Amino acid sequence: MMTAFLLVTSSSNCSGATLLSGKTETAATLVYHFAAQGRGPVLVCAASNSAGDHLAEKIHRTGVSTVRLYSRTHRLSTISEPLTLEAHLAALPADGTSEIKEYRSLLQLRAKVGELSPVDAKKLEAARKSAEAAVLHRAAVVVCTCSAAAEARVSSRTFHFLLIDEAAQALEPEAVIPFTNGVQHAVLVGDHKQLGPIVQTRQLQASGFAKSLAL
């Protein structure tokens, strides 16, 4: 049986901007205690990349091993470098598994020749997936957007705890995505005085898609 809690906070800011407020501190503290229970990795999702970045940095400051995972289509990162998946991949031990060694070797080859052959490119893709799996397996906390939780590298894992930040800004369809990962305990954190989900299509608004799962 899954248990879920809704933490509703308010602030003087009603513009929809993400604040590093007491809400974020509380969310980071909750994640810290979730991770300390040793029941496996904690999944932290947010309605936006900016909210995910802010919370990931707060969690990292508690000393918990945190990986900030972006969607494969996302190219811009404003978070501190040590938290990104790329940074964790670069920090993998050189004497790791054969897949990690192959990943490093192929990266070096690509840097040297500029472009890999189709065969080696496929090998690099497979080796990277193995390396990513190794990083995510070691992480105590994985932070991503709600929609990014649908990617196989996240959805294939089981998370005992889930925390969704800025839940009042998340659409219902995207907010339920992280719940498919075997979650047993969930906390939704939101601010009812901030802007809700933004849906520009009138047909979707009329169909009720402009509603938040939290508020």
Textual characterization of the structure:
The chain contains eight helices and six strands; from the N terminus they run E-H-E-H-E-H-H-H-E-H-E-H-E-H. The protein has helices spanning 22-36, 49-60, 85-90, 98-113, 118-138, 152-155, 172-175, 202-206, and strands spanning 3-9, 42-46, 66-68, 141-145, 161-165, 185-191. The chain has a six-stranded parallel beta sheet with strand order 1-6-5-2-4-3, covered by helices on one side. Helix 1 crosses helix 2 and helix 4 (98-113) packs across helix 5 (118-138). The chain is globular and about 55 Å long. It starts with a strand and ends in a 9-residue tail after the last helix. Keywords: Signal. One of its GO terms (biological process) is nuclear-transcribed mRNA catabolic process, nonsense-mediated decay. Pfam families: AAA_11 (PF13086).
Q: What's the arrangement of secondary structure elements?
A:
Layout (H helix, E strand, L loop, with lengths): L2 E7 L12 H15 L5 E5 L2 H12 L5 E3 L16 H6 L7 H16 L4 H21 L2 E5 L6 H4 L5 E5 L6 H4 L9 E7 L10 H5 L9
Parallel strand pairs: 1-6, 2-4, 2-5, 3-4, 5-6
Helix pairs in contact: 1-2, 4-5
Keywords:
215 residues; DNA2/NAM7_AAA_11; globular; DNA2/NAM7-like; single chain; signal; DNA2/NAM7 helicase helicase domain-containing protein; 8 helices; 6-stranded parallel beta sheet; alpha/beta
